[in-house]
Amino acid sequence: MPRILILIAGLALLLVPLQSARAQATVELKDLGVEYTFGEKITFAAMIQTKASLQTASVVFQEEGNPSTHSEVMKVTASGKATYVHFIQNGLIRPFARVYYWYHLILSNSAPFDSPHYSFQYDDNRYLWQTLDGTSVVVHWVTGDLSFGQAAFGAANAGYNAIQTMMPISAGGPINIYIYASAADVQDTLNLGGYTWVGGHASPDIGVVLVSIASGETQSIEMERQIPHELAHVLLYRLTGPAYANLPTWLQEGIASQAERYPNANFAPALSLAVQNQSLLPISELCGPFPAVASEATLAYAESDSFTRYLQNTYGTTGLQKLIQAYTGGLTCEQGAERALGFSLSRLDQDWRQAILGQKATEASPQSFLSYLLLLVIILVIPAWRLFGTPNRGIYDRTQSK
Question: What pTM value is reported for the model?
Protein backbone atom coordinates (compact mmCIF):
# COMPACT_ATOMS: atom_id res chain seq x y z
CA MET A 1 0.00 0.00 0.00
CA PRO A 2 2.72 2.61 0.82
CA ARG A 3 4.37 1.86 -2.55
CA ILE A 4 1.09 2.56 -4.34
CA LEU A 5 0.73 5.90 -2.52
CA ILE A 6 4.28 6.88 -3.43
CA LEU A 7 3.60 5.95 -7.07
CA ILE A 8 0.41 8.04 -7.14
CA ALA A 9 2.21 11.02 -5.57
CA GLY A 10 5.00 10.72 -8.12
CA LEU A 11 2.55 10.67 -11.01
CA ALA A 12 0.79 13.73 -9.59
CA LEU A 13 4.07 15.63 -9.49
CA LEU A 14 4.76 14.68 -13.08
CA LEU A 15 1.33 15.92 -14.15
CA VAL A 16 1.89 19.44 -12.76
CA PRO A 17 4.52 20.49 -15.34
CA LEU A 18 2.52 18.69 -18.03
CA GLN A 19 -0.59 20.70 -17.14
CA SER A 20 1.45 23.90 -17.02
CA ALA A 21 2.99 23.14 -20.43
CA ARG A 22 -0.49 22.38 -21.80
CA ALA A 23 -1.73 25.75 -20.49
CA GLN A 24 1.21 27.53 -22.10
CA ALA A 25 0.51 25.78 -25.40
CA THR A 26 -3.18 26.70 -25.46
CA VAL A 27 -2.75 30.42 -24.69
CA GLU A 28 -1.42 33.19 -26.91
CA LEU A 29 -1.21 36.84 -25.85
CA LYS A 30 -1.16 39.55 -28.50
CA ASP A 31 -1.32 43.34 -28.68
CA LEU A 32 0.06 43.83 -25.18
CA GLY A 33 0.00 47.46 -24.19
CA VAL A 34 0.16 49.90 -21.30
CA GLU A 35 -1.03 53.49 -21.50
CA TYR A 36 -1.16 55.98 -18.65
CA THR A 37 -2.17 59.50 -17.82
CA PHE A 38 0.40 60.55 -15.24
CA GLY A 39 -1.07 60.99 -11.79
CA GLU A 40 -4.50 59.74 -12.88
CA LYS A 41 -4.74 56.25 -14.35
CA ILE A 42 -2.93 53.33 -16.00
CA THR A 43 -4.63 51.10 -18.56
CA PHE A 44 -3.41 47.53 -19.10
CA ALA A 45 -4.60 45.74 -22.24
CA ALA A 46 -4.01 42.41 -23.99
CA MET A 47 -5.67 40.23 -26.62
CA ILE A 48 -6.10 36.71 -25.24
CA GLN A 49 -6.41 33.82 -27.62
CA THR A 50 -7.04 30.39 -26.11
CA LYS A 51 -8.65 27.14 -27.21
CA ALA A 52 -9.75 26.44 -23.65
CA SER A 53 -12.57 28.22 -21.88
CA LEU A 54 -11.27 31.30 -20.04
CA GLN A 55 -12.67 31.65 -16.52
CA THR A 56 -10.81 34.74 -15.27
CA ALA A 57 -7.99 36.99 -16.44
CA SER A 58 -5.99 39.14 -14.04
CA VAL A 59 -3.12 41.56 -14.38
CA VAL A 60 -0.55 41.49 -11.60
CA PHE A 61 1.75 44.48 -11.20
CA GLN A 62 4.46 45.58 -8.80
CA GLU A 63 6.29 48.85 -8.35
CA GLU A 64 10.08 48.79 -8.29
CA GLY A 65 11.36 48.76 -4.71
CA ASN A 66 7.99 47.69 -3.30
CA PRO A 67 7.58 44.00 -2.36
CA SER A 68 3.78 44.10 -2.43
CA THR A 69 1.88 43.25 -5.60
CA HIS A 70 -1.51 44.26 -6.96
CA SER A 71 -3.67 41.61 -8.61
CA GLU A 72 -6.70 42.94 -10.44
CA VAL A 73 -9.38 41.12 -12.45
CA MET A 74 -9.61 42.33 -16.05
CA LYS A 75 -12.69 42.84 -18.18
CA VAL A 76 -12.67 40.43 -21.14
CA THR A 77 -14.82 40.88 -24.23
CA ALA A 78 -16.21 38.07 -26.36
CA SER A 79 -13.37 38.63 -28.82
CA GLY A 80 -10.79 38.10 -26.05
CA LYS A 81 -9.71 41.68 -25.48
CA ALA A 82 -8.83 42.13 -21.78
CA THR A 83 -8.48 45.51 -20.09
CA TYR A 84 -8.02 46.89 -16.60
CA VAL A 85 -7.87 50.56 -15.59
CA HIS A 86 -5.92 51.34 -12.43
CA PHE A 87 -6.74 54.72 -10.92
CA ILE A 88 -3.70 56.19 -9.19
CA GLN A 89 -5.62 57.40 -6.15
CA ASN A 90 -6.43 53.75 -5.41
CA GLY A 91 -2.75 52.90 -5.23
CA LEU A 92 -0.12 55.59 -5.66
CA ILE A 93 2.86 54.70 -7.83
CA ARG A 94 6.02 56.70 -7.31
CA PRO A 95 7.13 58.95 -10.16
CA PHE A 96 9.86 57.52 -12.39
CA ALA A 97 9.63 54.05 -10.85
CA ARG A 98 9.73 51.00 -13.08
CA VAL A 99 6.53 48.95 -12.92
CA TYR A 100 6.65 45.19 -13.54
CA TYR A 101 3.52 43.35 -14.65
CA TRP A 102 2.30 40.01 -15.95
CA TYR A 103 -0.97 38.25 -16.75
CA HIS A 104 -2.51 35.43 -14.74
CA LEU A 105 -5.24 33.36 -16.41
CA ILE A 106 -7.51 30.66 -15.03
CA LEU A 107 -8.56 28.16 -17.69
CA SER A 108 -11.29 25.55 -17.41
CA ASN A 109 -9.31 22.52 -18.51
CA SER A 110 -5.72 23.08 -17.32
CA ALA A 111 -3.42 24.63 -14.76
CA PRO A 112 -3.29 28.43 -14.32
CA PHE A 113 -1.35 30.32 -16.95
CA ASP A 114 1.21 33.01 -16.07
CA SER A 115 2.67 35.12 -18.83
CA PRO A 116 6.28 36.31 -18.97
CA HIS A 117 7.02 39.45 -16.95
CA TYR A 118 6.99 42.82 -18.70
CA SER A 119 7.77 46.33 -17.48
CA PHE A 120 7.41 50.02 -18.24
CA GLN A 121 8.83 53.22 -16.78
CA TYR A 122 6.30 55.43 -15.01
CA ASP A 123 7.81 58.73 -16.15
CA ASP A 124 6.19 62.10 -15.73
CA ASN A 125 5.18 62.38 -19.38
CA ARG A 126 3.38 65.69 -18.90
CA TYR A 127 6.69 67.38 -19.71
CA LEU A 128 9.24 67.19 -22.49
CA TRP A 129 12.48 66.38 -20.68
CA GLN A 130 15.98 67.33 -21.78
CA THR A 131 18.76 64.99 -20.62
CA LEU A 132 22.50 64.89 -19.98
CA ASP A 133 23.96 61.45 -19.23
CA GLY A 134 26.89 60.72 -16.94
CA THR A 135 28.52 57.80 -15.17
CA SER A 136 27.39 58.81 -11.66
CA VAL A 137 24.41 61.06 -12.39
CA VAL A 138 21.89 61.67 -15.17
CA VAL A 139 20.27 65.10 -15.20
CA HIS A 140 16.82 65.76 -16.68
CA TRP A 141 15.30 69.24 -16.82
CA VAL A 142 12.19 70.89 -18.21
CA THR A 143 12.86 74.60 -18.61
CA GLY A 144 16.12 76.32 -19.46
CA ASP A 145 18.62 75.91 -22.26
CA LEU A 146 21.62 73.61 -22.56
CA SER A 147 23.74 75.84 -20.30
CA PHE A 148 21.17 75.37 -17.53
CA GLY A 149 21.45 71.59 -17.86
CA GLN A 150 25.25 71.74 -17.94
CA ALA A 151 25.33 73.84 -14.78
CA ALA A 152 23.03 71.35 -13.03
CA PHE A 153 25.14 68.46 -14.29
CA GLY A 154 28.29 70.10 -12.89
CA ALA A 155 26.64 70.78 -9.51
CA ALA A 156 25.41 67.19 -9.34
CA ASN A 157 28.83 65.69 -10.03
CA ALA A 158 30.54 68.06 -7.57
CA GLY A 159 27.99 67.21 -4.90
CA TYR A 160 28.32 63.49 -5.59
CA ASN A 161 32.11 63.64 -5.19
CA ALA A 162 31.89 65.79 -2.03
CA ILE A 163 29.56 63.29 -0.37
CA GLN A 164 31.92 60.46 -1.31
CA THR A 165 34.71 62.17 0.64
CA MET A 166 32.48 62.30 3.71
CA MET A 167 31.06 58.78 3.32
CA PRO A 168 32.88 56.53 0.82
CA ILE A 169 30.08 54.59 -0.87
CA SER A 170 30.22 51.98 -3.60
CA ALA A 171 28.55 53.14 -6.78
CA GLY A 172 25.23 51.51 -7.59
CA GLY A 173 24.48 52.87 -11.03
CA PRO A 174 23.76 56.46 -12.06
CA ILE A 175 21.30 58.52 -10.04
CA ASN A 176 18.52 60.18 -12.05
CA ILE A 177 17.89 63.81 -11.15
CA TYR A 178 14.70 65.46 -12.39
CA ILE A 179 14.58 69.27 -12.19
CA TYR A 180 11.15 70.89 -12.10
CA ALA A 181 10.64 74.61 -12.57
CA SER A 182 8.81 75.19 -9.27
CA ALA A 183 8.11 73.66 -5.88
CA ALA A 184 4.42 73.53 -6.80
CA ASP A 185 5.27 71.23 -9.71
CA VAL A 186 7.16 68.88 -7.38
CA GLN A 187 4.31 68.86 -4.88
CA ASP A 188 1.81 68.13 -7.62
CA THR A 189 3.99 65.33 -8.98
CA LEU A 190 4.27 63.67 -5.59
CA ASN A 191 0.60 64.24 -4.74
CA LEU A 192 1.63 65.74 -1.41
CA GLY A 193 -1.53 67.68 -0.68
CA GLY A 194 -0.92 70.32 2.00
CA TYR A 195 2.85 69.94 2.27
CA THR A 196 3.44 73.27 0.56
CA TRP A 197 6.95 73.63 2.02
CA VAL A 198 8.35 70.60 0.17
CA GLY A 199 10.68 71.65 -2.66
CA GLY A 200 12.66 68.45 -3.22
CA HIS A 201 12.35 64.73 -2.75
CA ALA A 202 14.42 61.56 -3.06
CA SER A 203 13.34 57.96 -3.64
CA PRO A 204 16.63 56.46 -2.42
CA ASP A 205 15.84 52.83 -3.16
CA ILE A 206 15.27 53.46 -6.87
CA GLY A 207 17.93 56.15 -7.27
CA VAL A 208 15.59 59.01 -8.21
CA VAL A 209 15.85 62.65 -7.11
CA LEU A 210 13.30 65.44 -7.68
CA VAL A 211 14.20 69.10 -7.12
CA SER A 212 12.63 72.47 -7.97
CA ILE A 213 14.97 75.03 -9.53
CA ALA A 214 13.85 77.97 -11.63
CA SER A 215 16.08 79.32 -14.37
CA GLY A 216 17.49 82.70 -13.35
CA GLU A 217 19.91 84.55 -11.08
CA THR A 218 19.65 82.18 -8.13
CA GLN A 219 19.79 78.96 -10.12
CA SER A 220 23.46 78.19 -9.29
CA ILE A 221 22.91 78.57 -5.54
CA GLU A 222 19.80 76.41 -5.64
CA MET A 223 21.56 73.77 -7.74
CA GLU A 224 24.45 73.55 -5.31
CA ARG A 225 22.08 73.39 -2.36
CA GLN A 226 19.16 71.21 -3.42
CA ILE A 227 20.85 68.66 -5.66
CA PRO A 228 23.61 67.56 -3.20
CA HIS A 229 21.03 67.40 -0.41
CA GLU A 230 18.85 64.89 -2.23
CA LEU A 231 21.85 63.00 -3.63
CA ALA A 232 23.03 62.46 -0.05
CA HIS A 233 19.80 60.60 0.74
CA VAL A 234 20.34 58.22 -2.17
CA LEU A 235 24.00 57.60 -1.33
CA LEU A 236 23.20 57.14 2.35
CA TYR A 237 20.65 54.50 1.33
CA ARG A 238 23.26 52.76 -0.80
CA LEU A 239 25.54 52.70 2.23
CA THR A 240 22.94 51.25 4.59
CA GLY A 241 20.47 49.40 2.36
CA PRO A 242 16.95 48.84 3.72
CA ALA A 243 18.31 49.63 7.22
CA TYR A 244 18.22 53.26 6.04
CA ALA A 245 14.72 53.34 7.52
CA ASN A 246 16.22 52.78 10.98
CA LEU A 247 18.22 56.02 10.85
CA PRO A 248 16.66 58.85 12.87
CA THR A 249 15.23 61.54 10.64
CA TRP A 250 17.43 64.16 12.30
CA LEU A 251 20.51 62.19 11.21
CA GLN A 252 19.25 61.59 7.65
CA GLU A 253 18.44 65.26 7.15
CA GLY A 254 21.46 66.50 9.08
CA ILE A 255 23.87 64.58 6.86
CA ALA A 256 21.99 65.70 3.74
CA SER A 257 22.20 69.33 4.87
CA GLN A 258 25.95 69.04 5.33
CA ALA A 259 26.24 68.03 1.69
CA GLU A 260 24.84 71.42 0.63
CA ARG A 261 27.44 73.94 -0.51
CA TYR A 262 25.30 76.88 0.61
CA PRO A 263 23.34 76.81 3.89
CA ASN A 264 19.60 77.25 3.85
CA ALA A 265 18.91 80.93 4.54
CA ASN A 266 15.86 80.09 6.66
CA PHE A 267 17.69 77.97 9.20
CA ALA A 268 19.56 80.63 11.22
CA PRO A 269 16.49 82.86 11.76
CA ALA A 270 14.38 79.83 12.72
CA LEU A 271 16.94 78.75 15.35
CA SER A 272 17.36 82.29 16.68
CA LEU A 273 13.60 82.77 17.07
CA ALA A 274 13.18 79.37 18.75
CA VAL A 275 15.95 80.16 21.25
CA GLN A 276 14.39 83.53 21.98
CA ASN A 277 10.93 81.99 22.50
CA GLN A 278 12.33 78.89 24.27
CA SER A 279 10.49 76.77 21.72
CA LEU A 280 13.28 74.51 20.49
CA LEU A 281 12.15 70.98 19.72
CA PRO A 282 13.91 68.24 21.73
CA ILE A 283 16.13 66.22 19.39
CA SER A 284 14.35 63.10 20.64
CA GLU A 285 11.19 64.40 18.94
CA LEU A 286 13.06 64.53 15.62
CA CYS A 287 13.81 60.82 15.52
CA GLY A 288 10.62 60.16 13.57
CA PRO A 289 8.79 62.06 10.81
CA PHE A 290 9.09 65.84 10.89
CA PRO A 291 6.05 68.06 11.56
CA ALA A 292 3.74 68.82 8.64
CA VAL A 293 3.36 72.52 9.57
CA ALA A 294 5.80 74.59 7.53
CA SER A 295 7.24 76.67 10.39
CA GLU A 296 7.76 73.63 12.62
CA ALA A 297 9.25 71.66 9.73
CA THR A 298 11.74 74.44 9.03
CA LEU A 299 12.78 74.44 12.67
CA ALA A 300 13.14 70.64 12.62
CA TYR A 301 15.43 70.84 9.57
CA ALA A 302 17.41 73.71 11.10
CA GLU A 303 17.95 71.85 14.37
CA SER A 304 18.95 68.65 12.57
CA ASP A 305 21.47 70.55 10.47
CA SER A 306 23.00 72.38 13.43
CA PHE A 307 22.98 69.35 15.74
CA THR A 308 24.61 67.04 13.17
CA ARG A 309 27.28 69.64 12.38
CA TYR A 310 27.99 69.94 16.10
CA LEU A 311 28.38 66.16 16.39
CA GLN A 312 30.73 66.04 13.42
CA ASN A 313 32.85 68.91 14.72
CA THR A 314 32.98 67.31 18.18
CA TYR A 315 33.34 63.62 17.34
CA GLY A 316 34.58 63.80 13.75
CA THR A 317 33.36 62.00 10.66
CA THR A 318 34.12 58.71 12.42
CA GLY A 319 31.55 59.71 15.06
CA LEU A 320 28.86 60.07 12.39
CA GLN A 321 29.90 56.76 10.87
CA LYS A 322 29.59 55.10 14.28
CA LEU A 323 26.11 56.58 14.64
CA ILE A 324 25.11 55.19 11.25
CA GLN A 325 26.46 51.75 12.17
CA ALA A 326 24.68 51.76 15.54
CA TYR A 327 21.32 52.73 14.10
CA THR A 328 21.50 50.39 11.10
CA GLY A 329 22.34 47.68 13.63
CA GLY A 330 18.83 48.06 15.02
CA LEU A 331 19.37 50.25 18.09
CA THR A 332 16.76 52.82 19.08
CA CYS A 333 17.29 56.55 18.71
CA GLU A 334 18.47 56.85 22.31
CA GLN A 335 20.48 53.61 22.39
CA GLY A 336 22.33 54.40 19.17
CA ALA A 337 23.69 57.67 20.50
CA GLU A 338 24.77 56.02 23.75
CA ARG A 339 26.50 53.17 21.92
CA ALA A 340 28.24 55.30 19.29
CA LEU A 341 29.24 58.40 21.24
CA GLY A 342 29.05 57.33 24.89
CA PHE A 343 26.36 59.84 25.88
CA SER A 344 22.58 59.79 25.92
CA LEU A 345 20.76 61.68 23.20
CA SER A 346 19.29 64.09 25.77
CA ARG A 347 22.80 64.81 27.10
CA LEU A 348 24.10 65.46 23.57
CA ASP A 349 21.07 67.67 22.96
CA GLN A 350 21.89 69.68 26.08
CA ASP A 351 25.57 69.98 25.19
CA TRP A 352 24.70 71.18 21.67
CA ARG A 353 22.35 73.84 22.99
CA GLN A 354 24.96 75.15 25.40
CA ALA A 355 27.88 75.06 22.95
CA ILE A 356 26.16 76.31 19.80
CA LEU A 357 23.05 78.19 20.90
CA GLY A 358 24.36 79.60 24.19
CA GLN A 359 21.58 78.23 26.34
CA LYS A 360 22.24 77.66 30.00
CA ALA A 361 21.95 74.12 31.32
CA THR A 362 18.67 74.88 33.10
CA GLU A 363 17.23 76.28 29.87
CA ALA A 364 18.64 73.64 27.59
CA SER A 365 16.54 70.76 28.74
CA PRO A 366 13.22 71.31 30.55
CA GLN A 367 12.88 67.54 30.67
CA SER A 368 16.07 67.35 32.74
CA PHE A 369 14.50 69.77 35.26
CA LEU A 370 11.46 67.54 35.55
CA SER A 371 13.72 64.54 36.08
CA TYR A 372 15.55 66.33 38.90
CA LEU A 373 12.22 67.39 40.42
CA LEU A 374 10.95 63.81 40.34
CA LEU A 375 14.16 62.61 41.95
CA LEU A 376 13.81 65.23 44.68
CA VAL A 377 10.25 64.12 45.36
CA ILE A 378 11.38 60.52 45.66
CA ILE A 379 14.22 61.47 48.03
CA LEU A 380 11.93 63.51 50.29
CA VAL A 381 8.66 61.62 50.15
CA ILE A 382 9.86 58.03 50.62
CA PRO A 383 11.72 58.70 53.90
CA ALA A 384 8.75 60.73 55.17
CA TRP A 385 6.38 57.91 54.28
CA ARG A 386 8.56 55.43 56.14
CA LEU A 387 8.85 57.74 59.13
CA PHE A 388 5.20 58.70 59.49
CA GLY A 389 3.26 56.23 57.43
CA THR A 390 4.31 52.94 59.07
CA PRO A 391 3.45 53.79 62.74
CA ASN A 392 0.04 55.10 61.76
CA ARG A 393 -0.72 51.91 59.93
CA GLY A 394 0.39 49.90 62.95
CA ILE A 395 -1.82 51.93 65.33
CA TYR A 396 -4.77 51.50 62.99
CA ASP A 397 -4.22 47.76 62.94
CA ARG A 398 -4.05 47.54 66.70
CA THR A 399 -7.20 49.61 67.07
CA GLN A 400 -9.04 47.29 64.76
CA SER A 401 -7.92 44.25 66.75
CA LYS A 402 -9.55 45.38 69.98
Answer: 0.81
